[in-house]
Amino acid sequence: MAHRFARGPDGRASQKRQKVVHEAPTSEEVHASRQLQQLLSFSQDPIRARHGLQSFKLFLDQLLGPDGNNGDRPRILKDYLQSTTPAADDESPVYLPDVMQTWSYGAQTNNENIMSAVPVVLALLLKLLSQSLESVPFGLGICRTLLQKRQQELVARNLSADKGKSFIISPTLRMLTEAASFDGGAIAKPLFRARASMLKSLARNMGIVHRGDEAEDTKRPSARSNAILFLLSALKYLHPEAKNELLSQRDIVAALTRDVKQDPPYLVKELLEGLRAHVLLDDKLPRDAKASLLNASTLTRLSALYQYRLDTPAEGETSIADIAHEFLMAACTSPGCGLLRQDAGFYPRELDPNAPIPTAVLDEWGLEVIVWMNKFKTEIPVRNYALSNFLPNLRPWSSLKQSELVISIFKAAPELVAHYFLNNKSFTFEPKLSATWTGYAAFLFHTVTLPIPDHFCRGPDFPALPPPTSIVVDNILPPPLNQKALSRSLANKSNMISFFATRILVVALEKLDAALTMHRDPSHAHKTAWAEAARRLVDEFRQRSPGVTEMINAYRSVPEGDILHREAASRLLRLCYEVLPQHALLAKFDVSPFLETSLTRLSRQDLEDPKDFALSLKELENLLSIAGYSPGMRWFAAPEGVSLSPFTRLLKVCIDAPRGVSLGTIREVVNFVAVEEGLVPRVDGHPGLLALLEASQVLRQSYPDSITHVWPFLDNCLSRYANSPVKYVEKFYDLIDEATEPAVQGLTSADVSLATIAMLEQLPFAAAKEGSQHVLRALGRFLPSFLGYSAAAGESKALLDLILSKMVPHLPDSKRKVKAGVLKGLQFQHNPWPSAKATETGKAKGTGASRKEELPTPAMDPETLEDMLHVPDGLEADNSALVRWSSKSVDELVDEGYLKSLVALLVSEHASIRKEALVNIRKAAAKIKESEYEERDQVWLLLMELAETAGDKINDGPLASPIAAFACHAIDVQRDPLSCLYPKVNTFLVRGPSWSPDRIPLVDDILEGDPIVPNTYYTQTSWLLGYLIDGLRTKHDLELFHKRRAMGPILEHVLVSATNPYLRWPLKLQVLRLLYRATCIEGGSTTLTTRFGIMSWLEATQAGCTDASEAAVYEALRKRVWETSDQDRVRAWSRGGLDGLSW
Amino acid sequence: MPPPQLSDQQVAAEFTSYYLQRATKEFAEDLDKVRSADDFKNDALQILVSALQQGTAMFFPEEQRRIVTAAAGPVDKS
């Protein structure tokens, strides 16, 4: 009804708004088709017209009603429809002509009641007709009538009625919905063709929402609801081209979701399901059409449905939030839905990862020649622009589903991870015990665990150039996980915060490891560029990650009983040793006390739940791995206040473990140590330490009390052997020499476990002790059994018989034992016989025991040799060190390498830099002396002696590199009084105020002298070799290495030490690195060959190798020495003995 | 007769339950504090549980099996 303005007596419009009154139309019951005809016949009387339409409406309502008892009504309707059917030859047949005329008249006279009442009855009639196949032709006739020009105008007029006239707009939309879907969408196409009328004001009508405090009544849907249902109906039946055009109308797409948050549940459900079925999953619909619907603002509005509160889903019914989540998951992560675009993983848009850069240029200039390498630190162009705009609107920390959505998007489009965090700077990880922080932590954990895209680019091969390092590191430790936040989290007094940070670092290190492995892939075209990128990656990771020391402190502060937390913290440290060994080793972590605590807990057996025991074993395994990486691990030295050594306690844990707990890893470690230390023969087929384990287990089963008496004896024997193995080799040969049995003659120390010899030696002492009856009774049970299992393990039975015969006089019940001899044919029941590989190798350590002649030496290419033996220059000049140190605290100066950088400048080629460095070293020394730094005196002394040594000589030339390298490495010793080298370095320093400039310090003291701290010979040797490698850089340095001395040239001394059969592979590798460094110096290889006979040394050492991979290194190094030497000179020197033909 | 072998899903479910039980025991005090924080509403409980149990991802399936199946009780000392 049009607005009517009431006028007052003075003719002016009343200030009050006239109330619009809809007069209810009258109606009558329909009993016959003729009556219906009369009722609907055209009349200019609006009251009569409304009366007829209202009667027809009620008639149709009854037919559509749930009550099935319709009597004659269907027939009446049928008769009526037949009576109004236009003639078959009519060119433009008009169905229901009276009704159409009434509508037209209503429009002409502006009678809104009639304009509303006609679409109401037409919508009902179409709905009714669609239910029966018989009546379809009539329904189609009505639909086609609606498409005629006259009716189109009426529809358009109705649709564009004022916003407040929902009573006209809604029935028209309902009528169109019925028409669009009638007979399977038969007229959807022509309907869309007439879109100028049929879709008139659709976007606006979608904005006419339900007003009021109560929820929208499903029986009286708002214009918006009707408009959406009409659009969905059109989308369902339209062909792809038409849908494309429809969706390209921005106003409609925008209006579709603008008010979705307030829509009633049924409508939201229909909307999401309709869009999903008819847009997202329509394969024929072009990608652009889908993309125009799924823009960032649509997605953001739909994501508001995560907080939809209008529905109350019944049990088993899916909530709107869940439906919206499924919709968004499909829309954002499925490539077929049009939104997700294929990205290139860690390579941003617009760069060419296969840019043709010559290898020589890359080798010379490194990554700096790749213009884009450092370009993406602040901004990253992405292909998935819409998704990148949508992501910041989600709150993954406060909703599980949103977190799942974000993570799934990251997974589908890895390029977005770095972009997301760069553009969301407000995202901070400052620790706080709150739900939000926990949510952040969980979200970040998920992000870090996302896999790295295949070949970084999601392609089948690696591109020629590495991805930008900043992007890789952003994916491993996203920017909110910076050093400060992580350190504060690790050190937080809340254990849970520390635990969460630890877990994130664990997965980050695992991811870093995976990324580094990918950087080192042998298939890379530009190996040097990838290697440099790997180094940069490590550097950038370290700038974001807390230091190893902080991780150690965090581990230290974990309460004793928190085994889950302890496991995670120990795993983190283990990963540091595995992934960043050089940095981890710098932290000087003494694993022994932790190992001790863990062993004590496991030995006490106070863990009630066997699962707790198994979890504690995981911690122990981590610690054992760390111990394996720590050169200073003292396996056979019992800590103060503890009776047994770590090694024996590990054996004890293996024996005492609850049934069902898997001990594989621990046994491997124990066995590895036993093989390395020579406790058991290093030969193929020998099961290592299993004989000892089996005998102990059998004893524990039969005599649980006896085993407790055996442990101290065993510990004593093993420790004695480990401390002086050569003594027991000699004792073994003494035993062979004394023996008269022919079967024993010619045996070597590889035919029996040398630990047995130690037991034989120690037994008399054990027997001589007062009150040793219990021990002897236990040993009387244990030793014969042990020797029996040793025989079963393949050791010489004749020799074991001899040993038993020498043992029995000290054991009770000796006669019977002598008679019985060593037991034969014992079966291993508790310890599965391992494969040869498992007994010989510990985790990640190659210690093959097979004999060389049985294995061909695999060839090693020069690149692999370089990877293995090349050590970066530790004294590389960094002139910025001259100024950087002054702003640092003394702690940072000493602990973080600033001092070392300063010392390294003393070997600079430029006199001015050297002089400047010397002045600064003196200043730094003074600063340290005046500070509160705990080790200030020692560090000061070192620096001042270095300055005194350098003195005026640096005016003439660089300081000898070994001197500078010694000073650099000695700084680490001086800051750690617990270092095993502390006494030696300080003894050296107090000898005099300066050092001889042409003598390399401490070589003889370490290689020949008493280690002072027991069991640290190899640790000290490792330190010495480390500094010697850094100290061998120039021709002049090499001269110092082969200078004549009372004890022979330094290099000769080192080579002699390296022939020690007990030297472990990592130390041998250090010696080889020293030689490799020498080959890099001009004339170095020739000197090595002619002065030290290095070719023969390498050949002889290679011949003694039991591992083919080790032999390959010697072989490859020999080849390098030959290739880099003055071959004519070497050939003449060797009188043709060396001519390179052997390669 | 040996006990039937647990399926991977059973192992994962049992391990997750054990992990959660351990975590709630070790961080009981902190969890109480989080639950009394101002922002603990709506999905917060679900997030907290999910955050705790996501650490199971750090254990390989065989490690989970080792821990879950270590339930036969201590060795008989008699």
TrEMBL record, chain A:
Residues 96-440 form the URB1 N-terminal domain. Residues 1-30, 833-860 are annotated as: Disordered. SUPFAM superfamilies: ARM repeat. It holds the Pfam family NopRA1. Residues 630-817 form the URB1 central HEAT repeat domain. It comes from the Eukaryota. GO terms for cellular component: nucleolus. Residues 900-1097 form the URB1 C-terminal domain. InterPro entries: ARM-type_fold (IPR016024), HEAT_URB1 (IPR059018), URB1 (IPR039844), URB1_C (IPR032436), URB1_N (IPR021714). GO terms for biological process: maturation of 5.8S rRNA from tricistronic rRNA transcript (SSU-rRNA, 5.8S rRNA, LSU-rRNA); maturation of LSU-rRNA from tricistronic rRNA transcript (SSU-rRNA, 5.8S rRNA, LSU-rRNA). This is Ribosome biogenesis protein Urb1.
TrEMBL record, chain B:
Keywords: Nucleus, Ribonucleoprotein, Ribosome biogenesis. It comes from the Eukaryota. Coiled coil: none annotated. One of its GO terms (cellular component) is preribosome, large subunit precursor. Residues 15-59 form the Ribosome-assembly protein 3 C-terminal domain. InterPro entries: Ribosome_Assembly_3, Rsa3_C. One of its GO terms (biological process) is ribosomal large subunit assembly. Its main location: nucleus. Pfam families: Rsa3. The keyword Nucleotidyltransferase does not apply. The keyword Nucleus applies. It is found in: Nucleus, Nucleolus. Required for efficient biogenesis of the 60S ribosomal subunit. PANTHER family: RIBOSOME ASSEMBLY PROTEIN 3. Belongs to the RSA3 family. This is Ribosome assembly protein 3. It comes from Parathielavia hyrcaniae.
